[in-house]
């Protein structure tokens, strides 16, 4: 059973995402932002190696970006999220005029609740994915434990998170004007602190977000050792970054300026 502090954090996180659901849906739309389009989605699809007809669990599905995409590629997809308003928006975005959208199902389900996850059925899924959701979960052990039961043998779990080494509430982006004998130019950098310490920090994913939510920072050794504890092995890894072309056309200091440092890490864990 969860202790009171975990329950409290979980409830606060759910409340924040329900409050943000409409703004999030308007911002992400049907295709998502640049992070999703250029970094997260291509890396997940590369590691997933999806075959039409496979049954996939999309964990923390939000407004259904990944769910819809995988269904369009021929998968039967169950999208789950603990924020009911997110699920409401995901259901509204199903367009049955588009390919394979009848293969989508949504359910309000808390991915930190092992008992609820197990009710989905033993060996029910060929694979599970989670696109940028684990860092919003107060605890992840129940999820990893349950996945070993509900994913079929030799199945996989692919997750994408903000890269804990470079992109967290403990990092900051900056730029410095450099002069040499030929020109002035800007050199961009990332300042990192507090990496090894697990922590929780309130922050905003969007400028106009009505309520801050909690980010749960976990260094890589904690994130991966949790998976290894329950028998997963790591057999695929991507660290996508924005291309130099995208960096060159952006004038502001943001992640799209960095073509050599990945803001996202995407891992494939095999049972």
Written account of the structure:
This protein is an alpha/beta fold and 271 residues long. It has a single domain, classed as 3-Layer(aba) Sandwich (Rossmann fold), CATH 3.40.50. 32% of the residues lie in helices and 28% in strands. The chain has eight helices and eleven strands. It has a seven-stranded mixed sheet with strand order 3-2-1-4-5-11-10. α3 links the parallel β1 and β2. α1 packs parallel to α4. It is globular, with a radius of gyration of 19 Å. The model has no long low-confidence stretch (mean pLDDT 91).
Characteristic terms for this protein:
271 residues; 8 helices; alpha/beta
Q: Which helices and strands, and how do they pair?
A:
Layout: H1 4-28, H2 34-48, E1 55-59, H3 65-72, E2 76-81, H4 84-92, E3 104-108, H5 114-118, E4 125-131, H6 141-150, E5 151-162, E6 171-179, E7 184-192, E8 199-203, E9 213-217, H7 220-229, E10 233-238, H8 244-248, E11 264-270
Parallel strand pairs: 1-2, 1-4, 2-3, 4-5
Antiparallel strand pairs: 5-11, 6-7, 8-9, 10-11
Question: What can be said about this structure in brief?
Answer:
Helices cover 32% and strands 28% of the residues.
CATH class membership: Alpha Beta
In the CATH hierarchy, the third-tier topology is known as Rossmann fold
Indicate how many domains the architecture comprises. Answer: 1
The strand order across the widest sheet is 3-2-1-4-5-11-10
- The rounded Rg comes to 19 Å
Derived from helix and strand composition plus strand pairing, the structural class reads: alpha/beta
Q: Overall 3D geometry?
A: globular
The CATH superfamily is known as Vaccinia Virus protein VP39
Total strand segments: 11
Largest sheet: 7 strands, mixed
Write down the secondary-structure element order.
HHEHEHEHEHEEEEEHEHE
Distance between the termini: 25 Å
Strand content: 25-35%
- Shape-level CATH architecture: 3-Layer(aba) Sandwich
């Amino acid at each position: 059973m969860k202790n009171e502090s975990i329950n409290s954090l979980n409830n606060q996180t759910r409340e924040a995402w329900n409050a943000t659901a409409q703004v999030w849906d308007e911002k992400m739309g049907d295709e998502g932002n640049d992070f999703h389009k250029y970094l997260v989605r291509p890396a997940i699809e590369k590691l997933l190696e999806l075959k039409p007809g496979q049954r996939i669990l999309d964990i923390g599905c939000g407004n259904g970006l990944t769910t819809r995409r995988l269904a369009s590629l021929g998968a039967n997809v169950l999208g789950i999220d603990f924020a009911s308003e997110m699920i409401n928006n995901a259901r509204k975005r199903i367009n049955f005029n588009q390919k394979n959208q009848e293969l989508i199902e949504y359910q309000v389900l808390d991915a930190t609740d092992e008992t609820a996850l197990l009710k989905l059925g033993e060996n029910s899924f060929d694979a599970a994915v989670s696109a940028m959701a684990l860092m919003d979960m107060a605890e992840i052990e129940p999820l990893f434990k349950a996945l070993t039961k509900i994913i079929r043998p030799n199945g996989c779990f692919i997750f994408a998170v903000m890269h804990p080494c470079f992109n967290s509430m403990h990092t900051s982006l900056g730029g410095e004007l450099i002069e040499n004998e030929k020109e002035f130019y800007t050199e961009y950098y990332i300042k990192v602190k507090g990496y090894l310490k697990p922590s929780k920090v309130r922050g905003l994913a969007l400028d106009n977000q009505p309520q801050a939510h909690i980010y749960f920072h976990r260094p890589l050794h904690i994130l991966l050792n949790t998976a290894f504890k329950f028998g997963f092995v790591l057999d695929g890894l991507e660290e996508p970054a924005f291309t130099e072309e995208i960096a060159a056309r952006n004038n502001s200091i943001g992640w799209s300026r960095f073509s050599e440092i990945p803001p996202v890490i995407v891992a494939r864990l095999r049972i």
